[in-house]
Design goal:
By secondary structure, this protein is mainly alpha-helical. It contains 6 helices and 6 strands; from the N terminus they run ββββαααββααα. The protein has 2 domains: 39 residues, no CATH class; 107 residues, no CATH class. The strands form 3 sheets. It has a two-stranded antiparallel sheet. The chain is elongated and about 90 Å long.
C-alpha cells in the first residue's frame, strides 16, 4: 500500500506530500509559513519559497520604478498645466456650511476632476475638442461674463493664449 509521502518536513519531521522548499530544505505547508513568514496562499502554485521571495522583490522594484516614472511625468505636466489643474480642481470643490458655520470643502469627482487628472498626463492640446470647448467656456464665463459678450470673447482669447493656442 502506497502512502504518497514523498519526504519528511525539516521542522517537525512529519511525512509530507506537498513539499515547499525553503533555503534548500523541504517543509510542509504549515511549517514553511512558520519558518519563512510567508503564507502559502500568497505563493500561488510556486513551491520554492526562495524563488518566490526573489520574485516578490523583483516585482516590488518594478512597481517602484513605474511609480517613480509616473510621478516625474505628473510633476512635468503640473509645471506646464498647473494653473488649469488648480482651477479645475477648485471647481469640483463643494462648499458646505454645517450649523457650526465653519466652511468645509468636499472634493467631488466630476467632470472637472477627470479633466484635471488627464492634464497630469498629457498636454492641453491633447484634450478632445469638446473637452477643450467646455473648459474654455467655463473659464470664459467665470472671468468674462455672459456667453456672447465682449468680455466673454476677450476671456476666451486670453484662455487660448494662456494655453498656447490660436
Amino acid at each position: 500500500m502506497e502512502t504518497g509521502i514523498i519526504s519528511n518536513c525539516t521542522r517537525c519531521g512529519q511525512g509530507i506530500k506537498n513539499i515547499f522548499e525553503y533555503q534548500g530544505k523541504p517543509y510542509g505547508s504549515e511549517c514553511v509559513q512558520i519558518v519563512s513568514g510567508i503564507k502559502v496562499w500568497e505563493m500561488g502554485n510556486k513551491r520554492n519559497v526562495d524563488e518566490y521571495i526573489k520574485f516578490k522583490a523583483d516585482r516590488h522594484a518594478q512597481i517602484e520604478a513605474r511609480e517613480t516614472e509616473e510621478q516625474k511625468t505628473r510633476e512635468y505636466y503640473y509645471e506646464k498645466n498647473g494653473w488649469l489643474i488648480d482651477y479645475l480642481m477648485d471647481k469640483d470643490n463643494k462648499r458646505y456650511y454645517p450649523p457650526s458655520g465653519i466652511e468645509i470643502r468636499i472634493q467631488e469627482k466630476g467632470f472637472c476632476y477627470s479633466i484635471a487628472q488627464e492634464l497630469f498626463m498629457k498636454e492641453i492640446e491633447d484634450l478632445t475638442d469638446r473637452q477643450f470647448q467646455i473648459v474654455a467656456d467655463m473659464w470664459s464665463k467665470e472671468f468674462g461674463g455672459r456667453s456672447g459678450s465682449k468680455k466673454y470673447d476677450k476671456a476666451w482669447d486670453e484662455f487660448c493664449d494662456k494655453c498656447g493656442l490660436e
